Amino acid sequence: MVKNTAVGHKKFWHSFRFAAQGIAAAFKSELNMKVHSVLAVAVLAAAAFFRLPPSSWMLLLLAITLVLSTELLNTAIEATIDLVSPDIHPLAKTAKDTAAGAVLLTAVFAVIVGIYVFYHPVMDWITGFMS
């Protein structure tokens, strides 16, 4: 692990580089991060296709950010637990399961937001397509 020994502005910019490395590492190692990212791109493409208003975009971006952030935290918690407790332990399982539960909760929220945002535009599109 590289320690951030820079000072001033360099330290500030190094922190962004380290954060980007963390996001990249999670994307490379975690299937769920890849799945969530692909779904996020698909949702944003659908938002563009349906020309959703800015308020709907904000709801979608909030939901996407929550899911991806929670997935990053879950990855960090799992890595820490694996480092600290390489043996199977009930508390390690609880910590990992709880972190995964947080991801599930935010993913359910994202689905609810998606239904709320896309329901009327999709129904209008289907109605227009059928007539």
From TrEMBL:
Keywords: ATP-binding, Cell membrane, Kinase, Lipid biosynthesis, Lipid metabolism, Magnesium, Membrane, Metal-binding, Nucleotide-binding, Phospholipid biosynthesis, Phospholipid metabolism, Transferase, Transmembrane, Transmembrane helix. It is a multi-pass membrane protein. Mn(2+), Zn(2+), Cd(2+) and Co(2+) support activity to lesser extents. It is found in: Cell membrane. It comes from the Bacteria. ATP binds at residues 30, 78, 96-97. One of its GO terms (molecular function) is metal ion binding. Substrate binds at residue 71. The active site is at residue 71. One of its GO terms (biological process) is phospholipid biosynthetic process. The chain crosses the membrane at residues 35-52, 58-77, 98-119. A divalent metal cation binds at residues 30, 78. Its cofactor is Mg(2+). One of its GO terms (cellular component) is plasma membrane. Belongs to the bacterial diacylglycerol kinase family. This is Undecaprenol kinase. It comes from Paenibacillus typhae.
